[in-house]
Amino acid sequence: MIRKAFALRLKPEALDEYIYWHNNMWPELKAEIAKQGIAEITLYQIDGQIILFSSVRDAAAWDRLWDTDIHRLWAKERMEPLMHYRDDGVVDAREMREIWHVEPGAWS
């Protein structure tokens, strides 16, 4: 499993609605997330930022998901009003570089 993390920027006062839509995610989008090899997603919030942590089966999983019709529709209808987007219509997300990880059970 590969760990991936992204930093995303929310618009002011958007947090409650952002949480609402993630708690009420479309079933079709849930199925597509699983289909593309994303095993888990955890969202953290600090100030106006969302930190998205995920475990994926392969490095291209997120690219595949972002390129699906259902994810583009979700982004346009539900996320675009709440988040900052680039001029090309893609969410303003910065991939974070993992610099340290430990699984204490593996220590000798």
Task: Please specify the SSE layout and strand pairing.
Layout: E1 2-9, H1 15-23, H2 27-35, E2 38-46, E3 49-56, H3 61-66, H4 69-79, E4 93-96
Name a few traits of the molecule.
27% strand; single chain; 4 helices; Alpha-Beta Plaits; 108 residues; 4-stranded antiparallel beta sheet; alpha+beta
Description:
There is one protein chain. The chain is α+β, with helices and mostly antiparallel strands and 108 residues long. The chain has one domain (2-96): Alpha-Beta Plaits, CATH 3.30.70. Helix content is 32%, strand content 27%. Strands 2-3-1-4 form a four-stranded antiparallel sheet. A hairpin with a 2-residue loop joins strand 2 and strand 3 (49-56). The longest helix has 11 residues, at 69-79. It is globular, with a radius of gyration of 15 Å. The model has no long low-confidence stretch (mean pLDDT 95).
Would you kindly provide a brief summary of this structure?
The chain has 108 residues and is an alpha+beta fold.
Helical/strand content category: alpha+beta
Write down the domain tally.
1
Count of DSSP-assigned helices: 4
Strand content range: 25-35%
CATH architecture: 2-Layer Sandwich
**Which word captures the global form?**
globular
CATH class call: Alpha Beta
Report the average pLDDT across residues. 95
Distance between the termini: 22 Å
What's the arrangement of strands in the largest beta sheet? 2-3-1-4
Order of helices and strands: EHHEEHHE
Q: Strand count, sense and closure of the main sheet?
A: 4 strands, antiparallel
What is the CATH topology?
A: Alpha-Beta Plaits
What is the radius of gyration computed over CA atoms, rounded to a whole number of angstroms? 15 Å
Helix content: 25-40%
